[in-house]
Structures are given as structure tokens and as C-alpha cells.
Write a structure and sequence with these properties.
By secondary structure, this protein is an alpha+beta fold. Among the domains are: 52-136, Immunoglobulins (Immunoglobulin-like); 142-230, Immunoglobulins (Immunoglobulin-like), CATH 2.60.40. 16% of the residues lie in helices and 29% in strands.
């Protein structure tokens, strides 16, 4: 009777061991409570407990290169250290002779100044099984410092939003704070650095959008500064009342312009009428009167009055001369002796 009752419980324990349940789950938990003592009761097969497992770690970077010196620690479910070590020159590390169960694998150091560690992970180890794991350490992100400035004064501007990415993928969206800057980690997937683009999608208030995309290069773990400049939005200023044009003069200038064609201005004679500028009467027999002194300086309508006066004086002088000769002839004829 005891044999028939115990046989199913033992079968259940064997199935539990094959499926990899935790080591600390007792296989005899399915036994009937308080069994009667008997020398024929079989003991639990200890061969299942002897089947241990392990973990084989291969450490690489995103480029596929193996990494040496990476440190790992393996913890059991109680938090106790089940094993620790570092990868060799081939990037390998093994934890052997582990009881079946669940373990927590922690990478404590990447062993490289360009790489960062991976998050912790759980590893399930079935009895008699070695679990292979490939761990790829990412490169350390670059640190981006974004600045937006006025293109004329260099003043830092708040409220500038940009996208940063590579290829067709946007990796970051940054907006400058009140001090005109913004910072963020930027993922890098190449040992020698990677080329990224930056594109402004929102300009600061009062400024035009900087439309062209710019490129820059960032390396693993390195700081990089990206500066975007903006020009102020062009607006037509309101007219300044103090800038009104000077009105044109409407009155007659106090000093006449020297315009020989106007008839009212022009140069005045330099001589005094009646002295140097007075016309001279020509002697009898001369047909061309002598030009008054200074008359060459006068042209146009200013010369006409002088010429007219000179002509009148010549005519009067000529008439007086003729009349005087006639009187002389008459007197000679009167007083001449009789023939």
C-alpha cells in the first residue's frame, strides 16, 4: 500500500527535475503525510541533484570586436555571489558547476573607456545544461551641448528647438532653455565616431527659422558643441516724425541767383553810370560807336538797355553836329565879302 502511494510522488519529482525547476523545491513534497515506517520505502534518487549547469559568456562590441577585461558577477536568488570573473583575450568567461536555478548576471565593468555596461539580466540554468550568452557592450554616448545665438550679437537665445539624428532617423529633440543652451546624451555606434545632422524646427521668438541642415561628428564618450545661429525677422519700421524732409523754400531768396537768362538777376555793371561806363559820342564821320566800358560783361536782356541808350546818344550827338555845321555854313555865307 505504501509503495503504490509513493510511486506517483516520485514520478512527479522526476518530472520537476527534468523541466528545470528551482533546486530548492523539495522533490518529496508530494509524499503522503506521516507515512508508516517500512524498510521497503525507496530513497530519493540523488543523481538529479548531481546534474549541474553553467554559463559561457562571449563579450563583443557593436562592431563585432571581442572585448577583454570585462568584469561580471553572478548572484543566486538569495543575493549571494555564485561566481565572478573577467573575460580573457578571446572575450570569454565561463561559470561552471552551478546548481540548476535562476541567477542574476551583472556586468560591473566594460573594461574599455569607450564602452558602457549592459543592464542586469536573469539567467535560467537547467540541470546538466550550459547556457551560452553573447554580451554586446554599447559605445558610451557622446554628450551634446546645443547653443542658439543671434547671428549679429552672439547673444544666446531661448526657445530654439532642433532635431538631431543620423540617416533618416531622429535620435534627439532638444529645446534651448532660458540660458540659450540644452544638453543630452547622443548614442554613438562607431569606435571612430559617427556623423549626425541637426535641423532647426522652431526658431526663437522674433527670429527667422534656420532652414538648412548642418552636420557634425561625435565620438564615443566625447563632448561636442553644436551651435545654431538665427537672424532677426525683418520688419519695416514705422516712420520717425523727426525724420521729415526739409520743405522747399517758397519765398524769393534775399540774394538773387546769378542767372543771366532771367532778366531780373545777373551780374550788375562794375562801373559807375556817368563816369567810366558812360558811352562816348563818336566823332563825325564814324559810323560805328565806341562800346561803353564794361559792356562786354553784359549779355542777353541786361545789355539791351545800355545798347539802346548808347544808340540814342549817338543819334542825338550826330544831329547836333549836323545842325552846328549848317549854322557855320550860313554864317560864312553871310559875312563873306562880296565878290
Amino acid at each position: 500500500m505504501l509503495t503504490r502511494t509513493f510511486a506517483p510522488a516520485f514520478a512527479t519529482a522526476a518530472v520537476t527535475a527534468v523541466t528545470g525547476s528551482l533546486l530548492w523545491a523539495p522533490a518529496v513534497s508530494a509524499q503522503t503525510p506521516e507515512p508508516s515506517p517500512s524498510t521497503s520505502v525507496p530513497t530519493q534518487d540523488s543523481s538529479a541533484e548531481a546534474e549541474t549547469g553553467g554559463v559561457r559568456i562571449l563579450k563583443k562590441d557593436p562592431g563585432g570586436d571581442v572585448m577583454t577585461g570585462a568584469a561580471f558577477t553572478l548572484l543566486d536568488t538569495t543575493g549571494a555571489v555564485a561566481g565572478k570573473g573577467t573575460t580573457d583575450a578571446r572575450g570569454r568567461l565561463a561559470f561552471d558547476d552551478l546548481a540548476p536555478g535562476v541567477y542574476r548576471l551583472k556586468e560591473t565593468s566594460s573594461g574599455s573607456p569607450l564602452h558602457t555596461t549592459v543592464p542586469d539580466r536573469d539567467v535560467v540554468i537547467p540541470p546538466g545544461t550550459t547556457i551560452p550568452l553573447t554580451v554586446v557592450d554599447p559605445f558610451k554616448p557622446a554628450t551634446v551641448l546645443l547653443k542658439t545665438t543671434d547671428d549679429k550679437t552672439g547673444k544666446l537665445l531661448a526657445g530654439s528647438t532642433v532635431n538631431i539624428g543620423t540617416g533618416t532617423t531622429t535620435l534627439l529633440t532638444l529645446t534651448t532653455r532660458s540660458d540659450g543652451t540644452a544638453t543630452a546624451p547622443l548614442p554613438v555606434n562607431a569606435r571612430n565616431g559617427e556623423t549626425f545632422w541637426v535641423r532647426q524646427i522652431k526658431a526663437p521668438a522674433g527670429y527667422d527659422l534656420y532652414k538648412p541642415a548642418r552636420t557634425f561628428t561625435a565620438g564615443p564618450g566625447a563632448p561636442v558643441t553644436v551651435t545654431v545661429t538665427n537672424a532677426k525677422t525683418h520688419t519695416t519700421p514705422d516712420p520717425d516724425p523727426s525724420d521729415k524732409p526739409t520743405p522747399q523754400p517758397t519765398g524769393t531768396p534775399s540774394t538773387p541767383a546769378d542767372n543771366p537768362s532771367s532778366g531780373t538777376g545777373g551780374a550788375k555793371p562794375t562801373g559807375t553810370p556817368g563816369t567810366d561806363s558812360s558811352p562816348t559820342v563818336a566823332p563825325a564821320g564814324e559810323t560805328t560807336p565806341t562800346a561803353p566800358a564794361g559792356s562786354l560783361a553784359h549779355t542777353g536782356s541786361d545789355a539791351a538797355p545800355w545798347l539802346l541808350g548808347a544808340g540814342l546818344l549817338v543819334a542825338v550827338g550826330g544831329g547836333a553836329l549836323i545842325a552846328g555845321r549848317r549854322r557855320t555854313d550860313d554864317s560864312e555865307e553871310t559875312v563873306s565879302p562880296e565878290s
